[in-house]
Amino acid sequence: MNTTTTTFDAGHPRRSRPIRAVARPFGPIANRMAGTRVFPLWAIVRHTGRTSGRAYATPVVARPTPDGFIIPLPFGDATQWAKNLFAAGGGSIRFAGREHQVAEPRILDLEEAAPHLAPPIRFVARRLGLRHWVLVRTVAS
To answer: Contact at 8 Å (CB) between 81 and 45?
Structure first.
């Protein structure tokens, strides 16, 4: 099954309740630590609103890949930052204290994302029902 796409259609998540339960208490911590070298699991995605044109910065979980980053989509089609990233064709990610310009967002299913993920992350992704991921490529700024 090949669900690689350059349009934003991630479908609905299977189980978002466990992820929401974890996100609520850790949200304030993630907002402070995202994008820093302190905890390089969280990054900040900077994107422009599709209709408002407003600049946004959203903390996300991100893992580096050889030519960019891979980010889970725990809320499927309800993920506003991803909709904005696709509409603009890219944005930037602050990861481990450095800003990276990113472009060419694509949605991958877990099978396609698996080569970019460590085995423990694949295990947790399956248990949490994370079915879709956004893969972005870094570009020179």
So the answer is: yes
